[in-house]
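I trust your eye. Have a critical look at both lines of this record:
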Amino acid sequence: MKLQSVLLGTTLTMLLALHATTIDTLLPGIPDIRSEFAVGAGAGQLSISAFVYAFAAVQLVYGPLSDRFGRRSVLLCAMSLFTLGTVLAFVANSFEALVVSRVVQGIGAGAAPAVARAVIRDIYGPERSGQVLSYIMAAFGIIAVANPVVGGVLTDWFGWRAVFVYMTAYGTAILVLVWYRLAETRPAGEAGGSGMRRLLRNYGVMLTDRRFVVITVCTCCIHAAMFGWLAGCVLVFIDSWGATPTLAGTYISVSLGGFILGSMVAGRISNRLGSTRLIEAGNLVCLSSAAIALVPAYAGVQSAPAIIAPVIAFMFGVGFVIPPASAAAIAPFPSMAGAASSFLGFSQISASSTVILISGYLYDGTMRPVVLVMTVLAGLGLSVFFLGMRRRPAR
């Protein structure tokens, strides 16, 4: 039983970390990709944003499909497609071919977090899912911290294509785990995703729930701010500050350390404070730390520790926001957990992919636009949460 629990936790963690793995390991190789295919900074970010846009769009489909056909079968089909896209990316002989293969990867990978969150809701229910998700996200953070270093080392030693060999192994491992160790968890007798009319009605129910909308918008802002840092800082570290891909990956990994700690702390205190207070506190930490990072950025300080120190605090705040918010948004919808998870994931990733694309065109060789975008998004997320969650006076 204990081994089964470990394998289940490993499977769910790897599923939730799939998009981070597919993005973060490639980040240190972006300058080399731009150089090989002779594209600019803005176009170069398409190798990231093409994946993310496809990943976001299909989130709306996979959750309802898992409600209708079951979690396990949807995951097996989707992960097979992801592995195919990864192999195509490895052999891509043009930038256009690379972008297309990244789209295929994104279409396959989109099932991973949407269905994984629904599985957690199926197994642990609304009461425990927030706490369990926080612990799983802490383990996810360990993978996320390792990814940029792995990507940097592979790029330095073997070239950027080696990153796709690593992704292929990662995707294959998930396929094996899902096939052998993930039982079907969809509640018996429920098939909430059948029919377009039923699907639209489900989304209509969610979008008229004020709490769901507020939490979704808030997490979109924080998620996008985090990815704005990940996509923007690597260009500055390598192109402007002269760091190697390995060193740049290490910088990114160190900054993500705060997320692990934040998620672990959130898991321990979630039952005492509740999701609302955790999300509120996390937003405050994100905004204040991003504002602090503005000082060295606008002073022109080219020192990684000066920038990374407040970003670690920012990531700590992210650990307080994303896991409890994800669980709180899905909890009221047990019969359509897949659809709720899908819409949440679609919204988060769509916002993040837009920021990733914009970061390439805002690039000016400094950290100023990177940190400014983080600060603005954190401020917007906090404002939406404060205004939206404020209780209306009784009449």
About this structure: The chain has a mean pLDDT of 84.
